[in-house]
Write a structure and sequence with these properties.
The structure is a single chain. The protein has 252 residues and is α/β, with parallel strands linked by helices. It has a single domain, classed as BirA Bifunctional Protein, domain 2 (2-Layer Sandwich). Helices cover 33% and strands 23% of the residues. It has eleven helices and eleven strands. The strands form two sheets. Strands 1, 2, 6, 7, 8, 9, 10 and 11 form an eight-stranded mixed beta sheet that branches. A three-stranded mixed beta sheet has the order 4-3-5. Helix 5 packs across helix 11.
Length: 252
């Protein structure tokens, strides 16, 4: 079945995963490609490398860290060991009846990730005004950066799983934020058996990817209606969502 697609791949090259995302989307799949990759720093369309990368290009090469300029929204971020990366497989025209429904998609993805974090046991999960992603009181837990081409989503999110990812973040100003605090599930006291298992655990909360065949009500509405106990833990900020959407590159 092409609906409810979920695949996990370990040690997948970021650019190869991006191409695979495009293939899956063009063939009509809907769901999530989850993977881990070798140390990679990606630059978004709003990035200024000289201001955000804290070490030289030669040092990056010595550390075997790939530097990629991409067409996704936002600024610089890190992908590598200690993270789970998720590339949504979705056609906005089919899922939302609108190929430009970037705001709705971003809202649903952001709240879905926050909901998943809270369900896993993360305390104080929240969004922050003016900054994209999912945060806790300790720091940034997940990053989001996407672009849209012909109604299809490209790139996606990265979730910090263990402290192993901290070294990579120390080499940049994540999302252009100097001295940006970073946290992980491990830091928050959450242990997962494997990243493939984590992908399976969070996928039910990404209902914009895993509910097919009908135009859906917003995940935000269901979140508020059926999980009132979690709403207090998730501070939803329209400013944060606007920040994500304003930095997106949208193409038809």
């Amino acid at each position: 079945m092409k609906d409810n697609f979920l695949e996990y791949r370990a040690d997948m090259n970021y650019e190869k995963a991006l191409r695979y995302q495009g293939v899956l989307s063009s063939e009509g799949y809907r769901g999530l490609l989850a993977f881990t990759c070798n140390p990679t720093i990606t630059l978004g369309i709003a990035s200024k490398a000289k201001n955000e990368i804290l070490i030289s290009s030669d040092s990056l090469q010595e550390k075997n860290i790939q530097l990629l300029k991409t067409d996704r929204g936002g600024k610089s971020t890190y992908h590598g060991p200690g993270q789970l990366i998720g590339f949504p497989i979705i056609n906005l025209r089919k899922a939302y009846k609108d190929g430009r429904a970037v705001r709705r998609f971003s809202e649903d993805l952001l709240i879905g990730l926050a909901h998943a974090g809270a369900a896993l046991g993360v305390k104080s999960v929240q969004t922050k005004q003016g900054f994209p992603g999912v945060w806790t009181n300790r720091g940034k837990l997940a990053s989001i950066g996407i672009t849209v081409k012909n109604g299809f989503i490209f790139h996606g999110f990265s979730l910090n799983v263990t402290r192993a990812c901290y070294t990579g973040f120390s080499l940049i100003d994540p999302c252009g934020i100097s001295n940006c605090p970073v946290t992980s599930l491990e830091e928050e006291g959450i242990t997962v058996e494997s990243k493939s298992e984590l992908a399976r655990l969070i996928s039910p909360y990404l209902s914009n990817l895993f509910s097919a065949s009908k135009e859906r009500e917003s995940q935000v509405m269901r979140f508020e209606q059926t999980h009132q106990d979690l709403v207090a833990k998730v501070s939803r900020s329209s400013m944060a969502i606007d920040y994500v959407c304003s930095s997106l590159s949208t193409r038809d």
